[in-house]
Structure formats: C-alpha cells, structure tokens
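Quick one, probably user error.
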C-alpha cells in the first residue's frame, strides 16, 4: 500500500516521519543529548537545556515518552520527585542525534563559508537584474 492511499492523520499515513520529527525537533534533540549523560529531574533538565518553556519541555518529554524513547519515573515522595532517563531505544536515537550535532559543530566553518558564497552570488545576481 502506498502512503498516498492511506486516509487519516499524519501518524497513520507515515509514522516513521512523525517519529523523525519528534527526535529531530528543536527541543527533542536537546533533551535526548542531555539525557545521554544521566537521568535528570525536570527542573535541572530545563536549566541544562536553557530557553525552553515549561510547557514545551513537558510536551517534548511526553511525546518522547509516548514514542518509547524517554522513561518517566515518578517517585511517591513529598515533595514529588520525577526523574527522566533514556530507554534503550532512546539511547540509540540519542547517540545518532549526538553524532549529527557533533558533525554540525565540526563543519560549521564550512557551512558559514558556503552561506557567504551563496549570499554574495545572490547579491551579484540581484545587482545585475
């Protein structure tokens, strides 16, 4: 069956694309990489990532948990304690994402050079028009 033959929401049509979106989302990438080192509580994870709202981090963690990548361990103590860690599947995905993040750091000078060349060529084209 072709993807175009399936009716319904995006998840039913192409589930692997949806998981790819979750793993490579702005906050998904950072959560996965951060959790590679060790489990984190919500507040420390939010501080470590920086500039993420409580709502977005909660949504990201819930999505990754639903996909089987993150484990949420709520301890019945006062005050409540919730730890987030990677599952085996999550660790595998996080290692792939970290490799991509490391590649971008290593190749950033080349990317910036390509951007400058592109912008200069566009500028020359626009002046010639």
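Nope, works fine. Designed sequence:
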């Amino acid at each position: 069956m072709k993807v175009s033959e399936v009716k319904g929401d995006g998840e039913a049509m192409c589930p692997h694309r949806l998981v790819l979106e979750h793993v490579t989302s702005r906050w998904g990438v950072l959560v996965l990489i951060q959790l590679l080192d060790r489990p984190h509580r919500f507040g420390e994870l939010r501080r470590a990532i920086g500039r993420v709202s409580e709502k977005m981090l909660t949504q990201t963690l819930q999505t990754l948990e639903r996909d089987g990548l993150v484990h949420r361990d709520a301890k019945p103590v006062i005050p409540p304690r919730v730890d987030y860690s990677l599952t085996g599947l999550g660790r595998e995905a996080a290692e792939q994402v970290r490799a991509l993040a490391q590649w971008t750091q290593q190749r950033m000078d080349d990317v910036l050079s390509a951007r400058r060349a592109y912008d200069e060529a566009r500028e020359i084209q626009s002046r010639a028009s």
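The longest strand covers residues 70-75.
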